[in-house]
Amino acid sequence: MKKYYLDTSTVRQYSNKLEKFKNKNIFTSILVIFELLSGVNNEKEFFLRKSVIKNLCKSNIQIDWSFYIEKMYQSFGIKYISIESVVIKEFFKKILLCNTFQEFKDFRVYINNGDYYLLESIKSFDDNIMDVGKLYSKNAMHEWRNLNIQDKKEVKNKILENTNYLCQQNLKDLSINCAETLSISNQIINSYNNELDVYLFNNSLFFINKEINGQECGKNDTLDLLHLIYLSKGDFIISEDKIFKKLSKENNIFETYTGKEFLDFINT
């Protein structure tokens, strides 16, 4: 059964209308909560984002509380709870109780032997995600620029003719790379259940297109793409970000709606 995933851009833009997104298969994720919290950097943003989170709670839209790292482990049949997930959940609960930005900023989440995380820690989680994508993008762009003009033309033509095929072929290697990054043993790699396929395929597609055009990824692109980790083949993402509309047009793995398109759809 197809699911409909609400990303951060739509949750924010339709904050006061979230109760209209009525569908038993509609959901959002902790990644949306994470993005909302990571932008709380002053009094104005505190009240704006607290209001969005409050409205999301009132809407009773289901939230997948597995952070992206946990989704990766789950795709290999491994139960895992990340520190990031614990911290985000606590700040999510706390923002609904705080009356001022300063009160929220002073909040600490204690883990184990006196270690604690502050609001700035969530921002550092965000920065780390962006840095990984930017580093990968810069390395790929550097390799591309070192090719001579004729090689670039041949490689680009070959990729353009076979992009979807190349991305499909990359899936196995990407899942193995993911397992190695998570330090998953070789014995467990074969337990991969393909739940990351939508994310891995489109991540590959996105960066290939950037590389052959000699472009770096944007500041938020890596984080935006992570929303696809919550989708299975045939699911929909409801988003105002053009990145998803462009990717979905290049393959039939997932589909997209804007908030307006989805509301029009369910009201027809």
List the helices and strands and how they pair.
Layout: E1 4-6, H1 8-13, E2 26-29, H2 30-38, H3 43-59, E3 62-64, H4 68-74, H5 83-95, H6 101-105, E4 109-111, E5 115-117, H7 119-145, H8 149-181, H9 186-189, H10 197-212, H11 221-226, E6 236-238, H12 242-250, E7 255-257, H13 259-266
From the structure above, extract its key features.
globular, 8% strand
Percent range for helical residues? 55-70%
Shape: globular
Structural class: alpha/beta
Main sheet overview: 5 strands, parallel
Tell me, rounded to a whole number, the average pLDDT. 85
Overall number of strands? 7
- Helix segment count? 13
* Major β-sheet strand ordering: 3-2-1-6-7
Distance between the termini: 20 Å
CA radius of gyration: 20 Å
Written as H for each helix and E for each strand, in order along the chain, the element string is: EHEHHEHHHEEHHHHHEHEH
As a percent range, the share of strand residues is 5-15%
> What are the low-pLDDT stretches, counting only 5+ consecutive residues below 50?
none
Protein name: DUF4935 domain-containing protein
